[in-house]
Design a protein that fits this description.
Elements (H helix, E strand, L loop, with lengths): L1 H19 L4 H13 L10 E6 L5 H9 L3 E7 L2 H9 L7 E5 L12 E7 L8 H11 E12 L8 E5 L4 E5 L1 H10 L2 E10 L2 E8 L5
Parallel strand pairs: 1-2, 1-4, 2-3, 4-5
Antiparallel strand pairs: 5-9, 6-7, 8-9
Helix pairs in contact: 1-4, 2-3
Bound molecules: S-adenosylmethionine.
The site of S-adenosylmethionine has 22 residues, from helix 1, helix 3 and strand 2.
């Protein structure tokens, strides 16, 4: 079931990839990235390994690499065509690399990253709890997870499912995000409204999980 959903999502984003940075939507995504950056706190003068899950064409990592000269960024995405675009427009080789994989089973060692990002990708995940468990696994203690996605304001504490883009999409309330995080060993720091219904939630990895 999960693998069928992932295959369908990859197909949709493979088709979208060649136009992703041309359509009007990119203006929206870039405004979201810009606002997100004002809340990001990474070391300025030491090498910092960061992961962008569902990285798409890699625009957020390029922006982060420009702001943090020591940053080493990895982009993970299901869609080979999105990755192709990301590699073509990689302005910070070899500090940025882009690898294939699913957010539900990340191909990385435990505690490898100091920060993880997910912008407008979490809504596509068929098993959000598993993604939080994976984020917790790959983060170092004290590492931060910046989750940016549409939220639902209608029913606090529940998730909202909407049909579209290769299967259903899921919007989570602030409380729902906090519950998923707590179950995975992350603590919640803050929520910030970025643009319309797009909410940034920041979490910290507190303890080493087995
Ligand atoms: C709307 S795009 C957002 C891309 C990028 N984060 C941005 O802000 O522009 C969603 C991305 O998530 C990826 N994606 C969706 N489900 C995924 C999954 N389960 N694992 C990894 N990537 C996934 C898609 O392939 C697509 O590139």
């Amino acid at each position: 079931m999960t693998s069928d959903v992932l295959t369908a999502k990859a197909r949709v984003f493979d088709r979208w990839a060649p136009n992703y940075d041309w359509l009007f939507t990119t203006v929206f995504y870039q405004a979201v990235h810009q606002r997100l950056l004002s809340y990001v706190n990474l070391p300025d003068h030491s090498p910092t390994a960061v992961l962008d899950i569902g990285c798409g064409t890699g625009k957020l990592l390029n922006r982060l690499a420009a702001q943090y000269p020591q940053l080493q960024g990895t982009g993970l995405d299901l869609s080979s065509e999105m990755l192709r675009q990301a590699r073509r427009s990689n302005g910070h080789r070899p500090r940025l690399i882009f690898v294939p994989g699913a957010s539900e089973a990340m191909p990385f060692a435990n505690h490898h990253f100091q920060a993880a990002f997910s912008t407008i990708s979490f809504l596509h995940y068929p098993d959000p709890q598993q993604v939080f468990v994976e984020v917790s696994r790959i983060l170092r203690p004290g590492g931060q997870f910046y989750l940016v996605d549409y939220t639902t304001l209608f029913e606090l504490g529940t998730q909202q499912n909407v049909a579209g883009l290769g299967g259903s999409m899921h919007f989570y309330s602030p409380q729902q995000r906090e519950m998923l995080a707590t179950n995975a060993g992350l603590i919640h720091n803050a929520h910030h409204s970025l643009l319309g219904p797009v909410l940034l939630s920041i979490f910290t990895k507190t303890e080493i999980l087995s």
